[in-house]
Design brief:
Length: about 400
């Protein structure tokens, strides 16, 4: 299967969570009902409701708007089956949410749209919607559903739940100061390197460091990590959970202080690392942002659990239009649109928040990174981390 349901589910939910938590703007406009006059035929029926063809087509447009990387999957039967099940889940759960969750979901959806407009400008926002033939109200209605469900699930997470999750993932809240040089498989000019060439350069840099070379100067000269290069390779007082490249993270947690590592291989290339300091963060020293991050991850895990364990019980029929992908029928009621809870990648907080997650992998979660890869910008530079100001962000390292 070309399409990975687990990664897509994490990625789409992550996109929604990230945009939401970047903003604390107040007030919002009136939300609409899930549909007005919709005479299109049902493509899915479930306990207490249905998804119409128009609703489903709008869902596809919104997914492309929110996560353009999934556009290539939109005509795949397997992906469409996943999308309609996701729509069923959010529509069903939002209908059962508390009044407080619905009120907060409405507010957060409005904040989210306000933040999108602020980030790209009103004209560009309208253009992006127009590119997908979307109306702002359609996007708003969808976000109200999603945010309502998330608020409802988050409200079910207790302080004890948060503390237990922290205890299970203490290392993600450690604070470290790290020097880093990345010799990437793609350099700062977007030119590809072979692994052999990257390793050769990394060994040369390590040799220069061993002979007393200045780490900061060598980072500025050689490093392809755009987040730290201009700062002499330094990540100062970063929460360990902000980094999601596992090989890098392991070195940060285990490398003896002030020792320069040998070149460490990852999917990005080769890293040379020196840890200057590393200290624990006790639970009573967590910020509110960090605790809310854990709450959001645990709330998202509850959505995962519903998708895995309960969704098929409420679905009566799915009858999607046929696609060119005849290898998948796109019909039936089996499957849930997600295939695991919290084992993709590792989470990230922002520059001021730590992380946590749920599921099989320590420190991983639904709202964490879906791949554990760093982000490469359109200029070809590699970003080892992404700073956010509120919890819920996935790592870009």
């Amino acid at each position: 299967m070309l399409f990975n349901k687990k990664k897509a589910w994490r990625g789409i939910l992550l996109t929604l969570v990230c945009v939401l938590t970047l903003s604390v703007l107040a007030a919002c406009e009136k939300g609409g009902s899930d549909k007005e006059k919709d005479a299109s035929k049902p493509v899915a029926t479930y306990e207490g409701g249905e998804i119409t063809e128009n609703e489903f087509e709008t869902q596809k447009k919104i997914m492309t708007f929110m996560s353009p990387e999934y556009a290539q999957f939109m005509d795949m039967a397997d992906f469409q089956d996943y999308l309609v099940k996701q729509k069923i889940a959010f529509k069903y759960l939002s209908g059962k949410a508390t009044d407080d969750a619905k009120k907060e979901g409405e507010k957060k959806a409005g904040q989210q749209i306000d933040q999108m407009k602020k980030q790209v400008g009103d004209d560009q926002f309208k253009q992006l919607l127009g590119d997908q033939k979307l109306k702002e109200d359609e996007l708003k209605q969808y976000l109200v559903q999603v945010m309502t469900v998330m608020e409802d699930m988050n409200a079910k997470v207790t302080e004890d739940d948060i503390k237990k999750q922290y205890e299970a993932n203490k290392q993600d809240f450690m604070v470290a100061t790290v020097h880093h040089i990345l010799i990437g498989l793609t350099d700062s000019n977007n030119k590809e390197r072979t692994k052999e060439d990257a390793l050769k350069i990394a060994k040369d840099v390590k040799s220069q460091l061993d002979k007393g070379g200045d780490f900061a100067e060598l980072a500025k000269k050689y490093s392809d990590d755009s987040s730290s290069k201009d700062n002499g390779g330094v990540y100062k007082d970063f929460t360990v959970g902000q980094w999601s490249v596992q090989e890098f993270k392991e070195q940060v947690l285990t490398l003896p202080l002030n020792k320069i590592s040998a070149p460490v291989e990852s999917n990005l290339g080769y890293s040379i690392i020196k840890v200057d300091s590393r200290k624990d963060t006790p639970y009573d020293k967590l910020t509110n942002d960090q605790k809310e991050m854990i709450r959001s991850n645990l709330g998202a895990s509850k959505i995962d659990q519903f998708m895995q364990n309960d969704l098929t019980k409420i679905i009566k029929k799915i009858d999607l239009p046929k696609t060119a992908d005849t290898s998948k029928s796109g019909t039936g009621t089996t499957g849930t649109g997600t295939s695991g809870s919290g084992t993709e990648g590792t989470p990230s907080g922002g520059s001021t928040s730590g992380t946590s997650g749920s599921g099989d992998g320590a420190g991983t979660g639904t709202t964490g990174s879906s791949s554990g890869d760093a982000k490469t910008t359109d200029k070809g530079t590699t970003t080892f981390e992404e700073k956010v100001t509120e919890p819920g962000e996935g790592s870009g390292k």
